[in-house]
Amino acid sequence: MSQNPKASPNLPWIPRLLMTFLAFLVDLTRRPNITVNRRLFNLFDFKAPASKKPNNGVATSDIKVDPSRNLWFRLYTPETHGGGGGACMPVVLYFHGGGFCYLAANSFSFDRYCRRLARELRAVIVSVNYRLAPEHRHPCQREDGVDVLKFIDETNIENLPAYANLKQCFIAGDSAGGNLAHQVTLGAIEKKFRKLKIVGLIAIQPLLGGEERTESEIRLQKSTLMPMHRTDWMWKAFLPQGSNRDHPATNIFGPNSVDISGLNFPATMVVVGGFDPLQDWQRRYYDGLKKSGKEAYLIEYPNCGHSFYVHTQIPESFLLIEEMKNFIGLQSAYQ
Ligand SMILES: *[C@@H]1O[C@H](CO)[C@@H](O)[C@H](O)[C@H]1NC(C)=O
Prior knowledge:
Elements: H1 13-29, H2 38-44, E1 58-66, E2 71-78, E3 89-95, H3 108-121, E4 124-129, H4 140-154, E5 164-174, H5 176-189, E6 198-204, H6 215-219, H7 228-238, E7 267-273, H8 279-291, E8 296-301, H9 316-333
Parallel strand pairs: 3-4, 3-5, 5-6, 6-7, 7-8
Antiparallel strand pairs: 1-2, 2-4
The chain binds 2-acetamido-2-deoxy-beta-D-glucopyranose.
């Protein structure tokens, strides 16, 4: 029998419609000269306000880090139903997806997703509103992430609950945010923190690449969200001008990569979907971590395409949250 020629999984109509619309909007607003029509995109990028009053069991507030570059984060704190006492909840620094160029910490879909993570993981979520490319290229996003970590380490944040355990800090992200989670973890290893300790990294379908065209990129060219013509454009917008896709921020274990085997790199969970064109790069990332002697876990969902996790209509999105819960519990137990 020949290999399944399908380019996308069978999806319920709501996720299918949302993915198709997002892809349409991205293509409508990204220009051939590598700029983004922000005004047009923002018309459709609906934002959710923060709510001090718990909504679905989670309160949110927006915390400014550096107004001069509009760096802030949205803090999600789950209700503790009275019991809360002691520093017992892990803290997850979260980087949203959007091809490095799109969406924000308060975009409707990510607000809903982070609220769900806070509630289900019983964790405090810090969703970073990092600067976007191409107006701000690599390594701005990595600097923003590390600066938020420093801010949390050094500042007494009024809204950070006493039950937030900074010694159990995880760095997580999806798609472009999964890539940034790796970059920020690397950046954080060089820093000395007083209160904060990074104990795990969760890379959900990280946006990775390289000059080479992999088998899955070619086979799944017709995927809704991540065909090569779109990811190539994202890399041109994100990387410093004049770089190619073998830049170490794209091809993490490629020809120009840094050797991480000597670094105190945390345990890492890599999430892969069987309909994601990026899956070959994501498996190489996992292999690279293992070869460097790091603790790594590969979680595969054969029937999932890119961005499945934000859609509650897709059952695997619930399985993934269970996996994240197990990973966080395991890493926290060893601290
Ligand atoms: C890119 O294209 C847009 C629309 O065609 C134009 O308004 C803008 O000035 C161009 N920007 C650059 C940097 O070339």
